[in-house]
Design goal:
The protein is mainly alpha-helical. The chain has ten helices and four strands, in the order H-H-E-H-H-E-H-H-H-H-H-E-E-H. The protein has a two-stranded antiparallel sheet with strand order 1-2. Strands 3-4 form a two-stranded antiparallel ribbon. Helix 2 runs antiparallel to helix 5.
């Protein structure tokens, strides 16, 4: 079964093949959010001073720690935002749908060791890009006889946090809207969209999405999995 564990490692760690959420988000929302709708930008520090219900943080540093984000994350402003100036909502949603892939969910386990448990190695590495897998993947752990290979999973129970991340940031977005900070409401709604979109990427939801990815080679007198070609 050595081939299986190697294959499992390759497929689960190569789970970031979906690169660039912005085009998907803009296309999906272009007929829902008029391009001219905008909201004023205010710094996160000012938004937090208004108070929130879902978190108690009053400073950006406390906010990062309470949400267990990568220490030092500073919520980069990639649209040239200036206090009081309008930001187009559709562009905001598209741009920051990619933010969870910029490193905010990486290298968390040294700072928050409680996030690492017996299941974590099946969805994440400890450091680097692979470490964000915990929050971007979800393997449901439901074996289906109609798809015996695609639904095969180790361990056979749900692992990964992507659905919970989507719910968490939807609640946070609503909180910012309710407390008069629509820019940050939309920004974290973009995060919600990111994790939701991740759940429609096959490599984010199954360790082996389809048997059509399997490639074989002869090993001595019998066929075996071609690990490199399959990976």
């Amino acid at each position: 079964m050595t081939w299986f564990w190697t294959l499992l490692l390759l497929t689960s760690m190569s789970a970031f093949a979906w690169d660039g959420h912005a085009p998907i988000t803009e296309k999906a929302l272009s007929e829902v959010v008029p391009s001219y709708v905008s909201v004023p930008f205010i710094p996160l520090a000012d938004a937090l001073k208004k108070g929130l219900t879902t978190v108690s943080a009053k400073t950006p540093e406390e906010f990062v720690h309470e949400l267990k984000l990568r220490p030092g994350w500073d919520f980069p402003l990639k649209m040239g935002e200036q206090p009081g100036q309008p930001v187009r909502v559709l562009a905001l949603l598209a741009m920051y749908t990619d933010e969870p892939d910029w490193g905010v969910d990486r290298d968390l386990f040294d700072a928050y060791p409680e996030l690492w448990d017996a299941d974590t190695p099946y969805v994440a590495g400890r450091h680097g890009v692979k470490s964000q897998g915990l929050r971007h993947l979800y393997f449901p752990g439901h074996f289906q006889w109609s798809e015996p290979i695609a639904s095969l999973q180790v361990p056979m129970h749900p692992i990964g946090k992507a659905p919970f991340q989507a719910e968490r940031y939807q609640a946070l977005a609503r909180d910012f809207f309710a407390h008069g900070s629509p820019y940050w409401g939309y920004r974290f709604l973009a995060w919600t969209l990111h994790y939701t979109e991740d759940l429609f990427q096959p490599f984010h939801t199954r360790q082996l999405p389809t048997k059509h990815f399997l490639r074989f080679k002869w090993s001595g007198w019998h066929p075996d999995i071609d690990i490199d070609a399959t990976g």
